[in-house]
Predict the structure.
Amino acid sequence: MEKMNIESLDKIGAGTAVRIVTIEAGSGLKNRLAAMGLLADVQIRVVRNDGAGQIIISVKNSKVILGRGMSHKVFVVEI
Amino acid sequence: MASSKPIQKLTVALAGNPNSGKTTVFNGLTGARHRVANYPGVTVEKKEGHFRYRDYELNVVDLPGTYSLTAYSTEELVARHFIFEEHPDVVVDVLDASNIERNLYLATQLMEMQVPLVLAFNMSDVAESRGLRFDLKQMEKLLGARIVPMVASKRKGIDELLEAIVETATQEHTNVLTLHYGHEIEEELSKIENLLREHGEVFPEKYPIRWIALKLLEGDTEVRDWIKEAAVCEPVEASREHLKTVLGDNTDILIADRRYGFISGACQETIKDTVQSRHDTSDMIDAVLTNRYLGLPIFAVLMFAVFYSTFKVGKYPMGWLEWFFGWLGAVIYNSWPQDTLLAVRSLVVDGIIGGVGGVVIFLPNILMLFLGIAILEDTGYMARAAFVMDRIMHKIGLHGKSFIPMLIGFGCSVPAIMATRILENRRNRLATMLVIPLMSCGARIAIYTLFVAAFFPDYLQGPMMLLIYFVGIVLAIVCIQILRKTILKGETVPFVMELPPYRMPTLKGLSIHMWDRGWMYLKKAGTVILMISIVLWAAISYPKPAAERLTGLDELQQQSVALQFSVAGHVGKAIEPALKPLGFDWKIGTALIGASMAKEVFVSQLSIIYSLGDSEEGLEALQGHLQEDYTPLQGFCVMLFCLISAPCIATVAIMRRESGAWKWAAFQYFGLTALAYVITLVVYQTGRLFLG
């Protein structure tokens, strides 16, 4: 069983694999993220998170940089 | 004639994600035979290439790289407009085969548009090395399109792609595949389709009805604007609400989800994944290049290398060009028949050859710079650099990538403004372009050197130089913040960017990139620069003083009198009252007019005014004259004014070209001049209070 602690992505340390639960953003942005493979139920991995500034995640076979503010709107659970 | 069949013209549109290798495929198809323009009305670059293949005349159009085809960005709108309005015979979607699921998302949207589609599975070698095995026959069936595996960087699969393009273009499209979005969504879709059929007049007829219905359901902003008919709009809203209640999310996300569902269904059946771990090498390189402590020094070293090659290596071909144009001018001057049409000689030698020389002289810089940038981009490093610089640049309201053009600005504003193309966000790009002239360019070093040496003791010369550079940087930061809070305001766009995989750049890709930029510079900016150069030449050459005013004067004195008598000289004198509060007189005013051609001209103009010519000894004597005529405070004010005011005409021309409007070039020109005036005024007047 996975732990059901929902947290925003910016709190997740590097090297952790997570599953996206929901993204709280406007329609246009959510759509853009979806086009890059980021939408609910997708598994991603945090590659870099220095506790400040942008974070890098790995989704499917690509890496994506997210702004800090952006990562604050992505809610995930650890798997 | 081998073939009696008439030549058939085919238009091919190339779509694909950023970083999918689309440009490499384009180059592979068209070679160097292509031209670059902008899509009408927008500053999105359009590359087009014509060539013959068998009995066909192919016109390949490179669409902007996008992840989807929504109305969210200009690039996506441009791509989908082209597809619907121009009706290409085939759309080739270039996909990164090693990241196939995400790349197929765009393909599903092309299928929705019901276009004849060919899928180019690029970088299939990388996919293979990652352990991916495709059942292409089965996949073609599931996706309803021809699939061509290729390695564009090694020219593998180009012929097969051409073959597939021709076949797809010439065969009838009977079985266009339709994506199904599940029972609930399909039900609403067919309701909307029926409504649209009843009200057939409300949308452009080139667009398929199912696509319009789908976009309405998604809430696509552009399509919604087309359809104002309440009899359609209201039921659409009801459907959207209904689906949201039943399925628990916004319709656009639901539909995106279904697209991925379709993709993963198709992939599960056709792709075998034989190796588990990925990203190993790439992760290791990233760990070094984006390291919290190593990232910045590495970036600094690479930037230094780009800067060095741009201005130090570029210096040699620049020298040769300078020599060549000087030689050409001298040859014409000397072989000109004595005393005939001297005005034409001056126009040809000083106006045209000088003007053309002034344009071409920047070319080595621009080529070297864009070679450097192309290497950084094509290897995948640029995105990492943006990540490294972002924390610093974020604080001043800019994107990490803005750092690169600003740094280049210390060499020359012209390539720096062209380099802002690496910024995707338009407001960010405009803000960066507008402040670039505040970075002291190489040409201004000539002015600074003269004035610092003339007015300040040895121990103050270094600090004064630093101070003037520093003033420029601080002003740039302040201006950016003001711009971002006023005319270039806008929600700070939430930042999302793909980190491209590391790749070895190809020589062909790099040289095409470099050549495109160089050519664009020559063609677009060059013509404007040349025109204005000739006008300015006329302004410093005419009208000529009467011959008797020159009698008894040596050649240098004659030049001085002639300049004073010219339009520039008159204007310099006329604006003296306006410049007086800044501590400037007509001599500086006249030199400033010359400096709008190129900043370094300021120095040679001053030499001419003082009847010194612009030789080495002349410059030393000039320092002496300046000390006699002006105080150190005035000298500093001249430096300050030259730093901030009126960017040179090459900058104005390139600003017009890159911003897409004279409006921005004029805003920059007059805005900076006004700023220079105010700041110099304050400094001079305050300085006088303290220094007497």
Q: What stands out?
A: Chain A has a mean pLDDT of 88.
